[in-house]
Amino acid sequence: MAVTIKDIARSAQISAVTVSRILSNKQGHYSAATAEKVRKIAQKMGYHKNIAAAELVTRKSHVVAVIISATKTNFAEKIVEGIEQSAIKYGYNIVLLTVEPNNPQSQTRALKVILGRPIYGVLLLSLDLTAKNFRLLQATELPYLFISIGVSDKASFISSNDFQIGYQATSFLIAKGHTKIGIAGMTDDAYIGQQRVAGFKQALRESKLSIQDNWIQFGDFTYEAGIKAMHEYGPNPELTAVIGTSDLVSIGLLNAANDFNLAVPQRLSILSIDGTQLTKIVRPQLSSITQDFYQMGYQGVQTLIQQANHKDKAHYLPFKIIERGSTSQLP
Amino acid sequence: MAVTIKDIARSAQISAVTVSRILSNKQGHYSAATAEKVRKIAQKMGYHKNIAAAELVTRKSHVVAVIISATKTNFAEKIVEGIEQSAIKYGYNIVLLTVEPNNPQSQTRALKVILGRPIYGVLLLSLDLTAKNFRLLQATELPYLFISIGVSDKASFISSNDFQIGYQATSFLIAKGHTKIGIAGMTDDAYIGQQRVAGFKQALRESKLSIQDNWIQFGDFTYEAGIKAMHEYGPNPELTAVIGTSDLVSIGLLNAANDFNLAVPQRLSILSIDGTQLTKIVRPQLSSITQDFYQMGYQGVQTLIQQANHKDKAHYLPFKIIERGSTSQLP
DNA sequence: CTGAAAGCGCTTACAG
DNA sequence: CTGAAAGCGCTTACAG
Hints:
2 copies of one chain form a homodimer. The first copy, chain A, is of the alpha/beta class.
């Protein structure tokens, strides 16, 4: 079977304790000579420490669990990339668990997996935990951090400031002369959607612009939600601009607008939120509020690791507005 | 700290052995009465088995490691979804490790992580392992299975039959009257690209159609590779049809063709390979060879678990041709 | 600088 | 039906 510390000890004519210390790089408990000998033998025998065994005794783990919604959106990949890179840097490993959207049982199952394994902490990606499952998470007493979704202000999270996203997106369109602006595709029950809408409304209010109810179209961030919203706006909407709350929503809006023969951006401006690669592969390319998903993942790991000191805080990452072809200045 | 078997034993006034047996559902070693009592206490105390400890003594693991290329393509998500669902069904957990494309060191690092942890087996997703890393993988003596990429015929894999994909795609276009057909975006060094090109050539040969060198444009399956290929074909190509070897490649071809004012599909037919959601969000929608990525993941886990019996075999999954708006019949 | 002893949480023969 | 003993691979005081 796999070679253990004992095998090396035998081969080096030395105790397993010393081998353990050397291979764990403990300080000042052995001579340089034995250290070198042991390392060579370990190398030659193809030794790999059984980390699970080590974790069992130290009662520490270097595994970060990432629970991710089997998301219909498409930015998760970038976040995971950031998480991975960060984990490598800090010497942690990642366990990825996916969870079905809007399925509390699936959430519970994922949390139970975590309960059964030695885990350092939990990262929750775009995940809207039910109250009950949130309690289950808290009961584990593990450090945790929400990424990209701010689950109200009860829990620690890292994300863009969604109120600001809604506010800035709207302000951008107002600055371009638009006065009839819609927003589409966000969920109405989750914090993230509420914040974006709140920012949207605030910007309009400050400019003394009014809104019709039908201009705010809720959805689930999918392509289909974008299509549906555009159909609600109809083939000849009063609107001259709409904010798509995800890239897929915006592409849905775009395609449906084209089907209505509404020229984008001449007749209708579309400003997308997210700014993934998708914005560049459609025509016209989508102007977008671009979030830094990679950093969200990267800093998410950092924050989790150092969390002890600053619990229950919001960490906001900057975003930027990138204008491409789907928005235009009104005369 | 976490509640253990001993805590339960104490509370139930019984030995830890019996508790262990009950909570592991061993047969006929205890009375129904004690079993029920123990289960109730476990429930009440919020007990969760330390699986790492159990795996240490049984020397068995129910963790499947999935090594995935931090892919520029976009179908990985579906495969992972299939893997997850299948893993749940069979009672396995998934550890996901990402690896940078074309980075042998990154591959080695991922394999080392696996070596240090109790793992049942390894699934490799769209991953072109270097010869050295492949040897490292074999040295672990763990069962493994390649998914979606057939790494030559040396290793077990599950994927579509890429020769057939190339062959059927080409035959489809020939049946539509095309005689000048290109293929674009695949790598030239990996098995998958070679197979698709071989199938492509075979179909042309059988129909006695000739090819110009420049019609075969290699790449790395990205959007940019599609753009570049189209630029190589030029603004007025002889070609009337081209096979994009991934959805992103095909979208690159499509956009570049539009920039050249080549109408798709009237002047140029594009047939995509993969058939992810992307084919439906561009205009015209892309006709595609659609692979069953979900099943690839789902059956990948099954195959890995049952692998003992049928090693080193190729498992092919069916694909289908779905015609959308990017292909047309030639007069 | 080196090692014997005890133990992390669990399971598996073995004996009753 | 129940339990004492030994051990999975590792680490941590403690003693020399």
